[in-house]
Amino acid sequence: MALLDIPHPAVTINIQSPITSYEHSQMLETTRTYRARIVNHQQVSDDFDQCGFAASKLWNVARYYTQGRWDEDGEIPDDGELKSELKEHERYSDLHSQSSQRVLEELAESFTSWYKARQHGDENANPPGYRKHGDEHPRSTVTWKQKGIKHDSKHSQLRLSKGFNLKTHRSDFILCEYETRPDATVENIQQVRAVWNGDRWELHLVCKVEIPVEDAPGDNTAGIDLGITNYLAIAYDDGDAELYPGNSLKQDKHYFTRDEYDTEGENGPSRRGLRARQKLSRRRDHFLHALAKHVVEQCIDHEVGRVAIGELSRIREEENGDSRSWGKRGNKKLHGWEFDRFSCLLEYKAEEHGILVDRVSERDTSKTCSCCGRKRDSNRVERGLYVCESCGATMNADVNGAVNIRRKITQNPPTEDMSNGRLARPVAYLFNQTSGLFHPREQVGCES
């Protein structure tokens, strides 16, 4: 089996998964990524171009080596092997050593993601491709770690080290001035990423920060069921329930992957297509951030101190460990479902307010009646509707799952006298593209 040389654009992730530790009871140590504009862009753009082109060339060298290993013995080399084999290569010395290492790590991660997707039945998944040559050579994202960074916070300047081969052209480093949002305090920089946004370079500054942690809003609990049609359903122990449809995400994906955008040539996506993908990624990021923030605010209003969310890391596997197939369309949807990313966002936003987020198994939560506890596959009569044949309860199927997920942490058994009125008619919140906020369906209807 040969790898396909189909370009697969790298995706820049703007938010790090939080790394947390407690130095004392009221402070949380975590990371934040700030997007910054390069003030002296005209003076440094050529230097960033050189580094971006060098990263693309190193990617292609590593891609060629990986292809050879696959053709020879069917193995995909990890980042350790790539670093060991290519550290003496001329292209490796074009960048600072840690920057070159990050390029190889990204390639290894991309191949691992592709291989896992194929194992889980996604026949449309393509391996990472070569980055094209010529006048339109893509400017790859370049990452500097701490050894390659000197930061002057007083004057908002960064000195980013070049590789040995590029030092002879101008200077040993790139000295750039940056500007970020007024409320951002840029210090304790862990990484700097230079990202080409289609028109110019911008910086993503990954900083270690300490933030105060509030006391928990209360002792109540909530359960969250993640889905595709409804991105999530949440149930509180006071009987309230809410739905958050993913309509805006679907509309964006449909619009920005139309044929006129999603065109591929020998050298990858067109410039218009690449910009459309970048815009789609930014809009998806904003949706996930806004949703996580809104859910935390709702939990505060309901005095929630602990949230249970479905753990979906093994949703692509059967109980015996074999790959599970959801059908051609289902596998494609599942592959693009960023449940882990949302869970990470929710965790770090909730932690700031003293709310603990637990990931729990979703096993049997969609089949079990949250009112009487009896389990039947036939109870879920159609998408969105759950009718229990035993106790007669009728409710929204996603909310029923959310109640069962919440019970995973409360350990309270179902009670047949539980009122299912609000479970059958939960409040639906829709995302308003204009305001960038979530509003009840009735308000969104009035605004339109």
UniProtKB/TrEMBL annotation:
UniProt keywords, alphabetically: DNA recombination, DNA-binding, Transposition
Cas12f1-like TNB domain residues: 339-405
Transmembrane annotation, as ranges: none
Region span, Disordered: 119-148
Keyword Transit peptide: no
Pfam families with a match to the protein in the record: Cas12f1-like_TNB (PF07282), OrfB_IS605 (PF01385)
Probable transposase IS891/IS1136/IS1341 domain span: 204-316
Keyword DNA-binding set for record: yes
InterPro entries: Cas12f1-like_TNB, RNA-guided_DNA_endo/Transpos, Transposase
Gene Ontology MF terms in the entry: DNA binding
One GO biological process term: transposition
Domain of life: Archaea
NCBIfam families xref list: guided_TnpB (NF040570), IS200/IS605 family accessory protein TnpB-like domain (TIGR01766)
Similarity remark: In the N-terminal section; belongs to the transposase 2 family. In the C-terminal section; belongs to the transposase 35 family.
Record protein name field: Putative transposase
